[in-house]
Amino acid sequence: MPQPAPSAAPEVAASAAASAVQEAVPTAAADDDDDAVEAATEAAAPAAEQPRAASATSSDRSAAGGQGSAQPPSSSSDVEDEGAEPSGRGYSSSSEDEEADLAAVISRLKEVLSVSEEAEVQLAKPPLLPTFDLAGIAALIKAGAAKRIICMCGAGISVSAGIPDFRSPGTGLYHRLEEYGLPHPHAVFEIDFFRRNPRPFYTLAKELFPGTFLATPTHYFMRLLHDKGLLLRCFTQNIDSLEHQAGLPTEAVVAAHGNFDTARCIKCGMPHDVDYVREAVFKQEGNPCHCKKRSCNGLVKPDIVFFGESLPERFWERVPLDFSQADLLIVMGTSLVVNPFAGLIDYVGQHVPRVLINREKAGELTSVKRSLGYTRGFDWDPATNYRDALYLGDCDAGVRQLCQLLGWEEDLDALMAAGQAQFEQARAGGAAGAVEDAAVAAAGSSSTEAVLRATAEAAAGAAQAAEPAGEAAAEVKAETVAAKVAAQAAL
Fold it and tell me: Which stretches are tagged as biased composition: Low complexity (predicted)?
C-alpha cells in the first residue's frame, strides 16, 4: 500500500511562528527591555504548537485510508480498531512527531532571524585581553596597545564630589524648587518653561555652578591619561564642568549635554562670558541674566542642553572621528540608558577592548538578545566574551586600583594634591572678594563706630578666607581690605 505523503503542516506552522516572533520581538528589543523580549517570544509560542495538531490530523487521515477524508477518526482508538499499525508502515510515534515538528519550527525561526549555528560559532573570537578585569586593561596599556583611549562618563564619577542629587526627598535639588510651583521637576530643564520663568533655573544653577565642588579621583585619572598622551577624548554626560577643574583642556572634552563653561543668549545667540552669568547667579538671587545687547535683552543661560534643544554640534562632529580611531574604551559611572549617548559603546571597532567601571552592570547584551541575533552592548558571557572587562564598585576605587596596577598611584596622588591646593586658593580668593564687597558697601553710609567695626570684621574675614594660601598672604589681604574700607568711609 502506498505510504501517505508527509504533511506540510510543520513547515507552514514554523513559518507562522517565525512571523509571529518577527513581528513581536524587534519592538521589544529596540526598547532594550529583556523582559519584553522574553514576553514577545512567549507570545509567539502558540504558533509553534500548531504543527502538533496538524501532524496528528494528517496521521489520522492517512490511517483512515489515506484518502484525506473530511471526517477523520475522532481518536487513536478508532485508528487501532481499523487495524492500522503505526510500526512498519511509514508512521512515527506521536512524541517523535512532536520532536520533528519542533525541530522544524526552531530551524525556521533561526533561518528567519538570521541566527544559524554557523553564525553562533563565528562569535567565538580570539580574546583581546588576557583577563576580563582591570588587570587585563592594565596589561593592555602597559604593552603599549592602548594609545588612543576614549573615556565615557556619567553622574557616577561625580558622586564623591558632594554634588547634591536631584531626587532625594527633602534634600534633592528638585525639592528645593517646590516653592516655584513647577508643573513637574524636569520643567526646570525645559527650554519653553525657561523662556516663561527662568528664575527656578537660576536658583538651581547656584547649587551647581563650577567652583563649588572639588574634582574627584576619577576626574584626575582622566587628567593623568591626558598628561601621559593616552587620552583621545573624554565624552561626558555631566554638566558640572569638573573635567575642566581637574585640568583637562577644552579640546579634550566633549560635553554631550553641555555644561557651565560657556553661555549665550537664547534669543540672538550672542556668546557671553561665563563670569557674567556667575555674577548674575550669585549676586542677583535667582533673577534672570539678560543679554548685554540692549536691542535684544534676551535671556542668557549656560550652554546646558535643555529638553527641547539639540545636542551640541561638537558632539555629532567628534563621535565618528574619535570612535573610529579609539583603541580602548573606558566607560565610568553611567547607567547607559539615555540615547544617543548610551549607544556610543558600539561605535568603536569590533577589535577595540572595552571596560565598564560602575556600581552595577549597564548596557549589557543579554542571552535573550544574543539568541535573537542582536549584537549591541557589553558581552560578559564567558562563552562569547572576547573584549569586554568589568569592575563593579565605586568609580574612584576602580580608577585607583587601575593606577596601582599601572604603577601610577603616586602620579594620581600628586595631581590630586595640586588640584586641591589650587581649588582652595581659588575659593579663598572668592570668599575674600565677597567679604570685601560687603564691607566696602557698608562703610559707604555708616557711622565712625560702624566703620571701625566693618574694618575689623572685613580684615578678619579676609584673613580667614585667605588662610589656605598662607599666613603672609592672609595678612596682606586683610590689610588691603581694611585700607579700602577706611578709604570708602572717608568719602
Answer: 8-29, 38-77
Annotation marks residue 257 as catalytic: yes
Whether the link from the prior residue into 340 is cis, omega within 30° of 0, is yes
236: CB partners within 8 A, 6+ apart: 152, 153, 154, 243, 253, 254, 255, 256
Residue list for the binding site = 265, 268, 289, 296
Candidate list 257, 272, 290, 351, residue with the active-site label: 257
* pTM to 2 decimal places: 0.65
**Which residue did the predictor score with more confidence, 480 or 202?**
202
Q: What is the pLDDT of residues 235-293, one digit of tens each?
A: 999 999 999 999 999 999 999 999 998 999 999 999 999 888 888 888 766 678 899 99
Question: 492517512: which residue's cell?
Answer: 62
**Per residue in 349-389, pLDDT tens?**
999 999 999 999 999 987 777 777 777 899 999 988 999 99
Domains of the chain, start order: 9-113 (no CATH), 128-162+213-255+311-407 (3.40.50.1220), 164-208+258-304 (3.30.1600.10), 419-490 (no CATH)
